[in-house]
């Protein structure tokens, strides 16, 4: 076992997993974290805690992860390379392991120009692929980058993101291959709306045998409204939402759009389930945690197994 | 204006190299700045004497070491350097070394922005950060350290869309350009190995840098 996390055990056993996501508050509001966590508990196998997503200041991922552990949930700590150098990252990883965090996700991070402090200096000392290599070195060689021995046990199940909807498309599978080469254990994709493109991507993944070297979780984000869909297309990097999907939402009519969005998400989950190489779903219900139990129920994921 | 309004004798010091080519701090710009300052200060009721002087390169002692220039600097209350940040600092330390009876105030007229190329008339784009560890050989002659908003070394991030960077639709994705160039060169294999951690010491992160060419020393 790489970390012995619930997520790792389930994936190893061949269970079709489901992970959730929780965005920490813009302040030290512990109750808010606990409330969101309660909605996700027993509905998903692990929960990503974002790291200052969209470059907006929030409670640190590591602190919110600790709260989740205390609440009996399993977190996946996201870490972006925008805000810390290798020294800060490795230090936080020691802290994370000390707190019992067993999964993490290596990301470059949204550029700070998107966030609430666009005048900030960024770091980008290392990139997400190098971060994967760094964590793997810490875990498997028991050393930090410079070669110094780590004191104590360091275990981590290493994740990363993949965006099949960014350009150039032909390159995307090669970027995933690099992450596999660097030592990634699992991948969570960007939100999928263009199913044909995702299937095309997964075929390339399977042809290269990458699905046998890492577990791939398909990213699903239910659309709450037509406005949200349009906002994502124009403001979130690397998102493609086909016009017919937006029209379907629109066609649901006032009062029914949210439930149509959930219906679409459930259909998407069933669809990705059938795609070779997909080992699970990463459900990003952005500021919609209270609808997660319903989605998970409708998609047939309950009850969740515990190992 | 606020830098010079307390002085009655001002020397505008143009620089004849890079900033002349960039149409920012050469002879013509020095003349324009001198007349604008003169007009503005007089309008505020100030009596002011403004002189102009051109130095071929303010970043080089050889060109600053001119008795007539030093005489003028001695005579004025403030020097407004139109060189880049390098020239301002170099001229400042030079004057303060050769004139030892009082401290010489040298202020910048320009705000030095970046090392770039002239793309079109009146248009420049950043091309080099001087990181001290050049990767251009591996990246098809396009610098990801400078031109990728995240200085990524392992290909385009998930924010690359239609050849543009996530920060702006007016900014090319450097890695998109690199991939296209490598493909044209038949060198796409270069993107396969994981590019390892960069050593930032040769960059500014290792502290202010210095180069000594022993072979050029007399």
Domain count of chain A, please report it: 1
How much of the sequence lies in strands of chain A comes to: 5-15%
What is the fold named in CATH at topology level of chain A? TIM Barrel
Low-confidence stretches of chain B: none
Most extensive interface, residues per chain? A-B, 36 and 29 residues
CATH class of the largest domain in chain B: Alpha Beta
Question: Main sheet of chain A, how many strands, which sense, barrel?
Answer: 8 strands, parallel, barrel
Overall, the morphology of chain A is: globular
Helix content of chain B: 25-40%
CATH topology of the largest domain in chain B: Rossmann fold
> What is the number of helical segments of chain B per DSSP (H or I, 4+ residues)?
7
Structural class assignment of chain A: alpha/beta
Distance between the termini of chain A: 13 Å
Point out poorly predicted stretches of chain A. Answer: none
CATH architecture assignment of chain A: Alpha-Beta Barrel
Query: What's the CATH first level of chain A?
Result: Alpha Beta
Tell me the Rg of chain B in angstroms.
22 Å
Rg of chain A, Cα atoms, Å: 18 Å
Global mean pLDDT of chain A: 96
How are helices and strands ordered from N to C of chain A? HEHEHEHEHEHEHEHHHEH
């Amino acid at each position: 076992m790489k970390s012995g996390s619930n997520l790792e055990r389930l994936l190893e056993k061949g269970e079709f997993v489901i992970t959730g996501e929780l965005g920490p508050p813009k302040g030290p509001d512990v109750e808010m974290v606990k409330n969101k966590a309660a909605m996700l508990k027993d509905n998903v196998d692990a929960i990503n805690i974002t790291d200052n997503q969209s470059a907006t200041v929030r409670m640190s991922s590591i602190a919110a992860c600790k709260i989740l552990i205390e609440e009996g949930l399993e977190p996946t700590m996201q870490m972006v390379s925008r805000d810390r150098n290798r020294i800060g990252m490795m230090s936080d990883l020691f802290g994370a392991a000390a707190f019992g965090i067993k999964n993490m996700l290596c990301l470059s991070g949204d550029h700070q120009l998107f966030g609430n402090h666009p005048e900030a200096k960024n770091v980008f000392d290392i990139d997400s692929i190098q971060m994967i290599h760094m964590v793997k070195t810490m875990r498997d060689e028991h050393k930090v980058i410079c070669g110094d021995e780590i004191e104590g046990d360091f275990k981590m199940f290493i994740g990363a993101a993949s965006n099949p909807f960014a350009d150039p498309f032909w390159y995307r599978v090669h970027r995933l291959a690099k992450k596999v080469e660097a030592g990634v254990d699992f991948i969570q994709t960007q939100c999928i709306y263009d199913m044909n493109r995702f299937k095309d991507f997964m075929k390339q993944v399977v042809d290269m045998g990458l699905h046998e070297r890492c577990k791939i979780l398909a990213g699903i984000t239910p659309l709450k409204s037509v406005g949200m869909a349009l906002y994502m297309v124009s403001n979130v990097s690397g998102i493609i939402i086909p016009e017919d999907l937006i029209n379907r939402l629109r066609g649901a009519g006032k009062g029914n759009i949210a439930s149509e969005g959930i219906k679409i998400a459930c259909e998407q989950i069933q669809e990705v389930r059938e795609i070779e190489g997909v080992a699970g779903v990463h459900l990003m219900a952005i500021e919609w945690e209270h609808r997660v139990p319903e989605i998970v129920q409708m998609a047939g994921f309950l009850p969740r197994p515990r190992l | 204006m606020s830098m010079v309004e307390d002085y009655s004798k001002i020397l505008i010091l143009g620089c004849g190299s890079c900033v002349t080519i960039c149409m920012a701090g050469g002879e013509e710009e020095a003349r324009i700045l001198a007349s604008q300052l003169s007009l503005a200060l007089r309008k505020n009721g100030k009596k002011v004497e403004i002189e102009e002087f051109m130095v071929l390169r303010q970043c080089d002692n050889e060109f600053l070491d001119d008795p007539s220039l030093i005489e003028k600097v001695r005579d004025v209350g403030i020097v407004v350097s139109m060189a880049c940040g390098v020239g301002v600092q170099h001229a400042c330390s030079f004057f303060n070394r050769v004139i030892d009876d009082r401290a010489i105030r040298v202020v910048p007229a320009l705000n030095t922005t970046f090392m770039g190329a002239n793309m079109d008339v009146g248009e420049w784009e950043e091309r080099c950060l001087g990181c001290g560890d050049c990767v251009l050989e591996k990246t098809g002659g396009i610098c990801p350290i400078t031109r990728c908003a995240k200085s990524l070394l392992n290909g385009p991030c998930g924010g690359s869309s239609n050849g543009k960077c996530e920060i702006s639709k007016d900014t090319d994705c450097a890695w998109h350009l690199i991939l296209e160039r490598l493909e044209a060169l038949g060198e796409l294999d270069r993107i396969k190995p994981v590019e390892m951690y960069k050593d930032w010491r040769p960059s500014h992160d290792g502290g202010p840098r210095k180069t000594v060419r022993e072979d050029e020393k007399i």
